[in-house]
Amino acid sequence: MRTVLIVSYRYPPQLYIGSLRVGKFVKYLPEFGWKPIVLTVNPEKDNIFFLPDEIKIGKVIRTKDFDLKHKLKVTKFNLNKLSFIVERRINIKMLKLYAVKFLLRAVNDFLCFPDPKIGWYWIVKKNAKILKSYNIDILFTSSPPPTVHLIGNYLKKKLDVPWLADFRDLWTQNHISRRIYPLWKIEQKLEKQVLRSCDTMITVSKPLAEQLENFHEKPVAVLTNGFDEDDYKYKPMKNVDKKFRIVYTGNIYRHKRDPSLLFQAVKALLNEGFLHKGEIKIDFYGRETSWARQICYKMNMEEIVCFHGMVSYKESVHKQMEADLLLLLEWVDKKAEGVYTGKIFEYLGAKRPILAIGPKGGVIDELLKETGAGILVSNIDEIKKILKTWITTFRQEGILPYGANYEAIRSKYSRRTKAKELACIFDNLIKSKKMKNISSN
Asked: Which residues, in sequence order, are CB contacts of 185 under 8 Å at separation 6+?
């Protein structure tokens, strides 16, 4: 069995989608001839929700964490709070709030370069000698944060092994988080310099792969996320109250992942008399959002919509399986069309119909059409139309049937399948290295 060193800041028990991706690779890679050695940070002590570490063969090496944002206490909340204080105390009409925020953001961008986890690079560099004793065959780094690729660049030289860089999100090409202009250009140069020594790259969708290929001028493979069948062995509870249950698991963001269109569509169906408050329920499981509660209050929908707050990963999966309909909110930004939310693959595992709301033509739209697991809509009229169809079916049959081919979905998008694909990439890198050695001799 060959050995792969996996460098990832996100890893169980941290409750992040990145932790799931890496953790499931670690779980299944030994089935395909690869023993994982994981290099990560110590887990957060104050987090009550966590993911299980499912490593069967291999080892997890944990180091101290060094989060610069926490050390400096430069969080988004503190920036907003500080800018508010500055604006009030200075009391200059020409000084706008956005100008203060821009200045504070510039300080934040400069100090946390290329990201707040940069301190981890120096911790790993200081203790890198111990890694040589594990006879590493392949180096695998998974970002974000980009610091892991700086570590990869350093370890590639120290270990002299092929290096595969995984981009769960893009680095400088990311549509969401970009630095102020001068630093962004510097960071672009840093990314190219760091990734020049990597042997191959992978990412989670074809559009993102194309962006990486254009930027780095080297081939990039696609390895999507997936779902683990072992997580979905729960037998869902029966729908006792006979309500049509719409479930969303994850975080929501105003004007980005925003449920307002759904609320407006449901409100319209209530006003038209098609729907009654006692026959529908919309449940949200994720971080509390006061703005969404205010919308529900203004629309008089408190009886229908319920915000349950954070739950464990296990419970979120159970709630998905108990739903009649799963709600997926895609980023409104057209630049996000190439981004899969990891939630879509969890929903595929739950085997319940999916209602996605967002721009059409992106990868989520394509995936739903490919699998037949749901539909993507982009306006209130479309939401009303599909809800009428599905609720009518639910009234007649007492259940909303799942019409997708689960076996086809499982064979293509299970975590085991994805680990097999990754192992094949590792095998090909080893073969390429052997061929180079033969030709050089």
From this structure: none
Q: Is the pLDDT of residue 90 over 60?
A: no
Q: Which two tokens stand for residue 206?
A: 């074809």
Nearest to 406 by CA among 383, 360, 373: 373
Cα distance between residue 355 and residue 397, in whole Å = 19
pLDDT digits (tens, 9 = 90+) for 16-59: 899 999 999 999 999 999 999 999 999 877 677 889 999 999 99
> Cβ of 432: how many Cβ atoms within 10 Å?
13
* Cβ neighbours, 10 Å, residue 340: 21
Q: Phi first, then psi: what are they for 244, rounded to 5°?
A: -75, 110
User: What is the C-alpha separation between 223 and 422, in angstroms, rounded?
Assistant: 8
pLDDT (mean) for 389-402: 94
Domains of the chain, residue spans? 2-67+118-226+415-440, 75-111, 229-410
Does the pTM surpass 0.85? The reply is: yes
CA 129 from centroid of its chain's CA atoms = 32
Q: Cα-flanking dihedrals φ and ψ of residue 202, to 5°?
A: -135, 155
**209 neighbors 222 (Cβ within 8 angstroms):** yes
Side chain identity at residue 158, one-letter code: K
162-174 exposure pattern, b = at least 16 Cβ within 10 A, e = fewer: bbbbbbbbbbbbb
* Same fold for the pair 2-67+118-226+415-440 and 229-410: yes
pLDDT tens per residue across span 131-145: 999 999 999 999 999
In CATH, what number does 2-67+118-226+415-440 get? 3.40.50.2000
Please tell me the distance from the alpha carbon of residue 191 to that of residue 225, in angstroms, as a whole number: 24
pLDDT of residue 333: 65
CA distance 188 to 215: 9
Q: Of the ranges 29-33, 124-128, 324-328, which one carries the lowest mean pLDDT score?
A: 124-128
| CATH T-level fold of 229-410 | Rossmann fold (3.40.50)
| pLDDT-based confidence at residue 242 (cuts at 50, 70, 90) | confident
How far apart CA 356 and CA 365 sit, in angstroms, is 8
Burial of residue 157 (number of CB atoms within 10 Å: 0-12, 13-18, 19+): exposed
Distance (Å, whole) CA 310 – CA 15: 11
How does residue 342 score in pLDDT terms, banded at 50, 70 and 90?
confident
CB atoms closer than 10 angstroms to residue 206: 14
Distance CA 335, CA 72 (A): 32
Of the candidate ranges 49-63, 111-125, 178-192, 209-223, the one whose mean pLDDT is the lowest: 178-192
Residue indicated by tokens 């994981």: 38
Q: What is the DSSP letter of 434?
A: H
